[in-house]
Design brief:
With 102 residues, the protein is an alpha+beta fold. The chain is 60% helix and 17% strand. It is found in: Cytoplasm, Nucleoid.
Length: 102
Amino acid sequence: MMRGMGNMQSMMKQMKKMQAQMTAEQAALNEQTFTGAAPDDMVKVTFTGDKKMKDITINPDAVDPDDVDMLQDLVVAAVNDALTKVDEQTQSTMGKYTKGLQ
């Protein structure tokens, strides 16, 4: 009966170690930046790994007062591109911890 307790303690120790690794990797991921761009780099946006926008750059050629819709579309494209990169890196980094849990 005591033998089972040793295994349980070992398993708990491994779980705590894994949790610490996950926390450290998530923190490192949150510090990374990801830049997304619209076609021809007309709009670029930069996000952190925790999906906070840090910067937006709009090429002056993208600003046409007669075609605001185009600029809006470019911003959306750049934001979506950056967020896709964040999601892909998050899955790559953190996916090993959730593999088989879904």
